Amino acid sequence: MEIAVLDINGKETGRKANLSNSVFAIEPNNHAVYLDVKQYLANQRQGTHKSKERAEISGSTRKIKKQKGTGTARAGSIKSGVFRGGGRMFGPRPRSYTMKLNKTLKRLARRSALSIKAGEKSIMVLEDFNFDAPKTKNFTNVLKALDLQNKKSLFVLGDSNNNVYLSSRNLKGSEVITSSELSTYKILNASRVILLEGALEGIETNLSK
Questions:
Q1: How far apart are CA 109 and CA 112, in angstroms?
Q2: pTM above 0.90, yes or no
Q3: Range of the domain at 162
C-alpha cells in the first residue's frame, strides 16, 4: 500500500511511503480489538474504592433489643447495614483491575486497528519535523495546515521529541506519542492517525513479529 508523504504545510513532497500489507491491510479481528481496548481501559482504573463494613463502623456493640417477642426481625447490632448509619453490606474493596493479554493477541489487535484506519483513509504520513523551541502556536499551525484543528489527532513519532511533545501538550484534541507507545485504544480513539516517516520502520518491525 502506497501513500503520499506530506510536509508540515500539508503539501505533498513527491515521495511515497510503502505501508506493509501485513500491518495496514489485514482482515480486522474485532474480538482481539475488543480485548485489547478492554485491557487498556481496565488498567487505567486505580481500584482504590473502599466503603466501611459493619466491623469498621464506630458504635455500640450491645444488643439493641431482645431476641424474641418484638414482632419484628431479630437484631444484634446497631452497626448492621439494615440500620441508618450502619456499615455497607458487600461494599467495594480495594482491588486491581489489571488484565493480562498475550503479546501475539495485542499485536493482532494493533494491526487490526491500523487496518481499520487505513480502510477509512484516516492515516496520513508526514515527513519528520522538529521545532526550535516548544511552542503551542507552532503545533497549532501544523494542525491548521493538515486541516486537523477540529479533529482528534494522534501523532506517532519514531523517537521521543521533547519540543514537539511539549508543543502539543496543551491541546485537548491532539496527542503525540512514540511508536513504542502505540495502543489499540489510542489508534481507534483518534479521527486521524499521523505517522511520521521515522516511525514507520519501528511500527512495522514491532507488529510483524
A1: 5
A2: no
A3: 2-45+100-207
